[in-house]
User: Fold this.
Amino acid sequence: MSATNKIDYVYILSASHSGSTLLAMLMNSHPDMTTIGETSPGKMGDINKYRCSCGRIIIECPFWENVIVEMQKKHPEFYFDHFGTKFDCVSKPIINRLLLFEHRGIFLEFLRDTMLRLFPYWRQSKHAIMTRCYDLATIVLSLSGGRIFVDSSKLAHRLKFLLHIPEFSIKVIHLVRDGRAVALTYMNQDEFGDSKDISLRRGGMGIKAEATTASLPMEKAADEWRRCLRSAKHILRGLDKSQWIEIHYEDLCRDTEAVLGRLFTFLGLESGKRVKDFRSVEQHVIGNGMRLDTTSQVVLDERWRTVLTKDDLKTFDRIAGAMNRRYGYE
Assistant:
């Protein structure tokens, strides 16, 4: 890493299935911005069948082939099933348990960091992970010609570590979606949080492939959403207000141009440069299955209003209703 090569880095902070992949692809339609979606991808399944958003099998995508070649010059172990950019330490169970907890505010983060400093191995691993994160962003920007890197990794805890990379100049977009809609995707990701084309679900391998996540009952789904929003709230408290902006998924869908205009102004960009047919722009995104859809039409998804039962809604309200109302959802 080099302090002279500072990168403008935009981090989309949200619960999963809140529209982060859609937002990243919309922002990628501006020539000054570029994204690969998530920079620490989770379970990708069979990479010989996993599809890039360009439609190609990812191992056959020329863009990703170049990313692999350039990254392996610095990090020979880098590959699709091992980016090495996740802030974990699987070889050291004690350290890994400390790292798995969600972001919980200043005091508990101070306590966690104090405990982690007792392990020299983690200090070395953390630096190596940060270096890979920096190199990945640098290489992607170089290959794409963009100058602002967009990361839709979502997790508050990941953002905490990225903020420690001095070579990143980070701005945060806090993307919020009605918790009832998000909970529904946790209950049935295939139907409500993946590609519209059944054959392209589960990473582009179809619904006969292994599921990427387990389905949750409403009780756990509501709690998962609530915890994600709570973690986001904690980390945003530590940022200067000029460093972050909040938008709602529903507003993005209802008035896409207005919301993107706000974001581009926040980032110091000219809105008029954006290509409105965002799928006509070269995209090499990994993450949510909607990356494989073909239409550039942005449509508000509120199927939760007709799908969730009265019991589902009561359960959600008991667990996460207060949080949902705090963000303006009645």
